[in-house]
Amino acid sequence: DSSVGNTPSNETDPDETIGFDWTPVLAFGQTVLDRPRLLPGRSPTGDGDRDPGWIWCRQQLAVLLAPGLCHDRIQPHDGDAVLVLLAQLADDPEPDEEYERADGRDDPVSTAINTVRGRAVIALMYYALWRHQNRPDGQPARLDDPVRAILEAHLDPSIEPTTAIRAVYGLDRSRFGGPRVRCRLIVQERRVWVRHAADLLRSTRRRR
User: Distance of alpha carbon 155 from its chain centroid, rounded?
Assistant: First the structure.
């Protein structure tokens, strides 16, 4: 059973990310993603402390990866495996527009941090900074093409239908599996991309 308790959005203690080999954890993460999101006969929203399938585990995987990246606990040789997981999590169908309407939260960010895709996009931003911090000496700062593609896709309303996910990009500061950090760090270190992303968002709004 993939039950994880009735608090699927709990934060991971940063101290729990210290002092272990991430390689088997990442392999287990892929095993989780290979499992069915929804098990037959279970409610899509969960039943008490029972996971609908492996949806809550998917969310917890993203929650776990964020502090591992934020605190630079993941070794550089595991970077490709992390990105493979995050790319799949960022493609998770939760939340969709129906979920967002039914959620009833006034704050779209609150919706994002309680969903698989929201947590995945947040973790992906930490991944971008982690790659920057672990780049070889002398290598210029730039967003990796796969990371850029995912982040840009979720800025495009024709691809990303929810306000909740796009709201993550505008965060100033919050807690996502670690101490308070400024999400504007990604702005400071990726100014050229941010200008491009803003132009992309404006252009997609004009086309709607």
Answer: 14
Mark out the alpha helices in 35-162 (DSSP H runs): 55-70, 79-89, 97-103, 108-112, 116-133, 145-153
Query: Taking the complete model, does pTM exceed 0.85, yes or no?
Result: no
- Cα-based angle 179, 87, 150 (whole degrees, multiple of 5): 90
What are the pLDDT tens digits along the chain (208 aa)?
443 333 344 455 545 545 689 999 999 999 999 999 999 988 777 777 788 899 999 999 999 999 899 888 999 999 999 999 999 999 999 999 998 888 877 788 889 999 999 999 999 988 988 888 888 888 777 778 899 899 889 988 889 999 999 888 876 544 444 434 444 445 444 554 566 566 655 655 555 5
d(CA 3, CA 197): 38
Question: Of 164, 165, 163, 139, which is closest to residue 150 (Cα–Cα)?
Answer: 165
Closest C-alpha to 165, from 146, 180, 150: 150
